[in-house]
Inverse folding.
């Protein structure tokens, strides 16, 4: 003590002596004595270095403070410029404010106490991300010191995740009732179909993704499916009716926001787009159906174009029998039917049903053209031969048929009846007059020459073309056909009649052979 204190002490002692009183040198219980070591404290007191004060030995508290419940970090992840808060409650009154820090790159960084939100034993600390921190989960440390000087260890067990990178989609797919068209990356849907979007994200998200369908610059939201879980998401959209929706190409957009709040500047547009299609497909142009008449063993061929790409092969039938696809994808197709001879002999219609990529099915188109199934050869009716004369007279053979004959007979190249004098051995020419020559074929030793007379049925003339008369027969043939053509073509009672001339030859009418002809289907008869 300094000299002043000694003087005061002496005066006090003397006063007590004269007044018959005794001295009390004890330290009051409420006193707080600063100390650096035990030497700075009176007897019965101990120096607590944690608080730098003397504490009565009999009142020493050896239990360190703790937290009431758990500390909370909000949000658990923060982006650049965002602030995380750490809130907690101490189990007792503290001697000084808690020490709260976050370890960044192995270096503790102290959090700042939020005085406005802290009161009593409840505390709130905050930390603002600079954006330079490693993008990892960084542990938070909380240390408490009570009035007895007891100091806790780390009480947090919490961490702050620094995240400055927006989330991304690892994979994504869009489908309707069927998968996307691989050639166009498009999904085709019709009224009331469901569009499904499946995708996987790169990290845990904060809010649910925003999945939308852009329709005429307006966004229609998809609905999250309950099957979503973890990093995998499933969203669906139900197409409305045509009075609500509009046909056309739509874009699917997805906006992801992670737990730190990072999001790309714009929603991501998926590569696969959706086509709303409410209109059934139709035929483009006039189909080609050939031939018009068929016999057993022939093939019926239909070629046609659709007015839009189809999702499945057309269904084509003829007279109720299925036609088979010979070739075609997309919009152009060719179908065939093999005539087996078991069909009924009549004209058969061809029908076509189309389905587009959205699943819209057309009405059944019945083509205007028909195919005649004909398995019976033509018959020759009422043949006559006039006159029955001598050598070098013209013999005319006249007859009718029970049906129209074909215009193209592959067996002779003409489609006309083959008429020859019985017993001749192939050195007569069978000539078919129809005008200018269009082709010829040697048939059984004779030469068949086809010509055209406008809109008239064929006129066949038989002439001897032996070696001694070949030159004159060729010359007279043209003149004979031209002079007798009008007379030799007749239509009587709706039946077709052909006149045949036999010029020269040694036979007579009695030896004239029956005539052979081919009908529209190519069937022959004798």
């Amino acid at each position: 003590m300094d000299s002043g204190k000694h003087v005061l002490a002496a005066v006090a002692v003397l006063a007590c002596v004269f007044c018959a009183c005794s001295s009390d040198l004890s330290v009051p219980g409420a006193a707080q004595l600063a100390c650096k070591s035990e030497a700075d404290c009176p007897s019965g007191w101990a120096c607590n270095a944690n608080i730098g004060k003397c504490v009565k030995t009999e009142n020493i508290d050896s239990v360190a403070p703790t937290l009431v419940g758990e500390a909370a970090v909000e949000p658990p992840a923060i982006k650049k410029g965002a602030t995380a808060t750490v809130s907690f409650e101490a189990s007792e009154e503290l001697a000084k404010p808690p020490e709260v820090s976050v370890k960044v790159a192995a270096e503790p960084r102290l959090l700042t106490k939020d005085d406005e939100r802290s009161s009593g034993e409840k505390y709130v600390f905050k930390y603002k991300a600079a954006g330079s921190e490693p993008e990892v989960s960084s542990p938070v440390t909380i240390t408490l010191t009570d009035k007895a000087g007891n100091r806790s260890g780390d009480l947090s067990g919490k961490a702050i995740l620094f995240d400055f990178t927006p989330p991304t989609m690892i994979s994504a797919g869009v489908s309707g009732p069927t998968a996307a068209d691989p050639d166009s990356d498009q999904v085709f849907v019709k009224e009331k179909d469901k569009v499904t979007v499946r995708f996987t994200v790169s990290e845990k998200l904060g809010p649910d993704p925003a999945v939308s369908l852009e329709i005429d610059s307006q966004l229609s939201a998809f609905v999250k499916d309950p099957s979503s879980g973890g990093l995998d998401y499933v969203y669906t959209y139900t197409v409305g009716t045509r009075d609500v929706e509009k046909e056309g190409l739509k874009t699917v957009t997805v906006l992801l926001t992670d737990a730190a709040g990072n999001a790309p500047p714009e929603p991501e547009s998926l590569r696969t787009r959706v086509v709303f299609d409410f209109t059934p497909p139709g035929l483009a142009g006039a189909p080609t159906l050939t031939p018009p008449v068929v016999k057993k063993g022939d093939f019926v061929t239909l070629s046609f174009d659709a007015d839009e790409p189809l999702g499945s092969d057309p269904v084509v039938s003829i007279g109720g029998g299925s036609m088979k696809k010979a070739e075609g994808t997309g919009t152009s197709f060719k179908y065939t039917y093999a005539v087996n001879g078991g069909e009924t002999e009549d004209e058969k219609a061809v029908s076509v049903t189309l389905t587009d990529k959205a699943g819209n099915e057309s009405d059944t188109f019945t083509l205007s053209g028909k195919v005649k199934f004909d398995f019976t050869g033509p018959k020759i009716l009422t043949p006559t031969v006039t006159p029955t004369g001598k050598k070098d007279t013209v013999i005319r053979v006249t007859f009718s048929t029970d049906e129209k004959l074909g215009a193209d007979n592959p067996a002779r190249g003409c489609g006309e009846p083959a008429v020859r004098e019985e017993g001749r051995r192939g050195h007569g020419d069978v000539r078919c007059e129809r005008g200018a020559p269009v082709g010829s074929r040697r048939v059984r030793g004779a030469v068949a020459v086809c010509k055209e007379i406008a809109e008239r049925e064929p006129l066949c003339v038989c002439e001897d073309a032996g070696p001694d008369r070949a030159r004159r027969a060729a010359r007279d043939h043209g003149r004979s056909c031209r002079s007798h053509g009008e007379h030799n073509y007749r239509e009587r009672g709706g039946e077709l009649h052909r006149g045949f001339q036999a010029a020269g030859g040694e036979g007579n009418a009695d030896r004239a052979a029956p005539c052979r002809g081919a009908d529209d289907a190519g069937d022959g008869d004798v």
